[in-house]
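On clarity, I found the account of how folds are encoded harder to follow than it need be. What matters is that the chain and its backbone geometry are given together, residue for residue. The format is easy to grasp once an entry is in front of the reader. For illustration, here is how one protein appears when written out as sequence plus structure tokens.
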Amino acid sequence: MKFNFKKIEEIKKKILIVEDEPMSILVIQKILAPYQFQLVIAVNGLDAIEKFKKEKADLVIMDLYMPEMDGFEASKRIKAMSADTPIIVISTTDIAEDELKKDIGIDYLLKKPLNIKKFQDFIHMLLLA
């Protein structure tokens, strides 16, 4: 029996991480490491939009406060390209989750410092269920 390893590779879920803080990227990568997802890193909103167009991620993890283009605008543009792609915002924002859902179309808000268990629950619900 022959295995098509390319097929297995294609099955991997792709997550776009949009974060300008290197330490936050490392924390998210470490949490996601056991899942074997394909991770794509963007360092600001402009970078995120370009990478989303090329990569078509299954999930976007978005910071809100970044240089060049913030996560508010980037989230709106990504949702305009793909309304079905879930966006989890991880931020220190004081803006209510309901407002962010209504104004920019995000799906979930996790406050910093990150609750790892809650984050893992979202990952399971959105990509592994």
In short: Residues 42 and 50 are 9 Å apart (CA to CA).
